Queue: 3 jobs
Job 1
Amino acid sequence: MEGESIEGIDWDVPFVEMAKLFPLCVRHKDQVEATFMRVKSRFCDEVLFGDVVDSYKMLLDKYRKVINKIAFGVVRFCCISCVKL
């Protein structure tokens, strides 16, 4: 399964064409569910928690920096406003 690719597939499919797949999925519900579970399981097996943790820490650090800048700006604005009064 690794390294699989689907050649010759036009992934830019209009919604109307996708809607035609729904009745087919209903008729073959068991096969669709089984395929979905295989894909889901494979995806979950390949996702590494460690990769997510590093990205989350980086995002959290950026968030904290922005919040500190906003808080400092609000305090500074209030101090300048109070002095002018």
Note: Residues 1-5 have pLDDT under 50 and may be disordered.
Job 2
Amino acid sequence: PRLNQIFVGASDGVNRILYDPELSTKGALLSTSKIARPKDDLSILLASRAPQGSAGITGPILTPHALPMFREDGTSSSTSTKKRQREKDRSDPIKSKRPEPPARGIKQGGQSGAGLNFTQFVVDGTIKNKNIAGRDPREELFKYSEGKSYVSKAYEGDEEVVLAEKTAEEEEDEMKSR
């Protein structure tokens, strides 16, 4: 067998691979046999300056006496300050990414109101026609149909053209009767 290895997962989240380097030829040995990348000078310098067992800097740098222009927002540890900052951010439409509410009237500023004006035009036209209380419905329908014939306009100027002397059915009947 090529794979003489045991993979162990412990309850504390540690995974281990147990193998015999003389008997095993594949599996975990494929990744361990690769040559480590050579480190560049900068990474060697940073590793030598960092404390033993650390990754250099582990978190944000706290500067309590920084100038206001260089101070980052949210660096205060007080919960009431964070709460006030959240409320300010909530009221700011850009930070809270609130969509722009529908505008009333003509828009001013950088945005075009062309679509809004067209929409208002259509809505105003339909609202005027909706006031039908106290009207006779038959008269309203006749108002649309008087003097309008959409079908006759489609066939205007057409002449009846005879494509064949007989239809296919007539020819079949004629053949059967012979």
Note: The longest strand covers residues 5-9.
Job 3
Amino acid sequence: MFYWIAFSKGWSGHPVCRKRYHFIVRREESGLAMDGYQRSCSRCGNQLSESKSICQCWSSAITVDDDSEDWVHRQLEDLTHLLHGVVHSNGYAHLLTLNGKEGGSKFLAGRDIMDFWDRLCTSLGVRKVSVMDVSKKYGMEYRVLHAITKGHPWYGEWGYKFGAGSYGLTEEAYQKAVDTISGMPLSSFLFQGRGARTHLQAIIAFYQSLSDTPLRTVKDLFSFLLSLIHKVRKQLKPGTSEKPEFSTSNVLGAWTSNDVVRVQEAIIKVLLAAAGEANWVTRRALKGAMCKSASPGLLDYCLKHLGGKLAANGMVVVSHYNPISSAVEFRLEPSSLVHNGFHLNLNHPSEEQIVCDLKSLYESILHPDTMVNFKPQAMWERLFDSATKLLDCKQFMKDYEPDRIAAENPSAIQLWCHVELSDRPKDDLALPPELVVLPLNATVADLKSETTKAFQEVYAMFRRFQSEKLPEFGFIEDSITLRFLVGLSASIRIQGRCRAKHGLHRFRMERGMEKWTVDCTCGAKDDDGERMLACDTCGVWQHTRCAGIDNSDAIPTKFVCMSCLKLYSKEYREVTNFCCETNGDLLPSTSCKEEVVADGPGIASITLPFSVG
């Protein structure tokens, strides 16, 4: 029984390129030294740090064992780099690592690093870039948060789109999942019977009351919380006020200033009545007490601006946010206890509390493993399914070529050359075309020569490649001027041969030539980067999750897929029926063969009444 976890996917079906260019921006504190790489003095054997080239036993500079190969390999595997991208010689690339301030950068934000990478790819003429999006924000999967609030992942800000979905996920299904969750009404979570209000409902209700605009959907709610975090951080930067002020609209709309004063005075009377108990009064309780005196909209406006108002006895209204109940609370305090007005209107949470509430909402609404249950069940199932699909989509891709479709150059011939091997099936290789630029007087022979050179330089398997003919034009002389044949720009097929057959097999694909068959119940037919295992009987691969094995569980020592189990059960039933026949009467079987099928594919081992090859 075998299994794999693939961490990078994108251009694995392409032939092996002869060169790969790694672009790395290391952490600021790592400098240029080969940190952690130890060398030994050739004279005394003492260990030297990478920054020292002189040993104490020598009086001058020495030559030490400077084999830095291990150090280079460690750099390629290091996940703490601010940026690590690799570009293949055929123009296809992978973004492997990107770490902004939350990932360890002291000065550069993730957006700054991504801007640099995007400009670098444009300057280098990169054709396509793939990325495995496992980015996190505040400890949450940021691709999910960003998709809900913006309609696309964070990398989508730079043109990255759906590349390949795990577990048979299609682009259409992914977009439908985004739309389903984004448009889910918050009322689905708020109105759940007559029971006590849950913590989730309290959080939703609080931020609805804090917002100037109605929060009706999941998208509205998460967008508002993310904007609050941004606002708090912006206002707490050096040179700004220490106290974040959540501005609210001063437009009264259908209410007059007299209406506001009247309602606020009535609210203060309620607080005066409760002042003897010295307890905080929740915003919800005040709204309940005043529900017959004013409209909900007017009450919300008055409560937002209640902090700092004076009562008739000279006391001041003070408000604060209670993180336990996720509610704003009010009470009256003597003006002498209120210093500089700082505690008058703290009806907003701190940045830490907003992040905490955001995590709670994420776990309750967006993460399938911790999602709260609610009614109707059909809506919950739709939300659960959509959230699972968002988590399953990690592979995104940007195509730079549409942005670089160059206009015809009157001083050169530009041809996209599609190479085929004449002794191989047409679809045997997933070979991208190469752009060949020739002078205006170039001939067919020049095209063959440049195409041969281009593919020899790019791919390892084409080191002995030789262009032979243009199948679309039949037999033509090599001396014919190319411009009269194809014009200044075109896409053209070229057939040729590789004299060295060994390289054709060895370097045929980046992922190697191991043969496997993927046939999973989710519809996947190829490796998608998720954990898989193979059936010990038929050898077919499928996802561990689809086989009923949780990703956190260990792989069983023995695994037989459901197809083989059903086949064995059918054969066993036929054998049992045959053995139980007596004089034409079929005796009832006491076998538990049904249990073999019911156990499913997640069992660690099975016992069958016949041998398994």
Note: The CA atoms of residues 569 and 575 lie 10 Å apart.
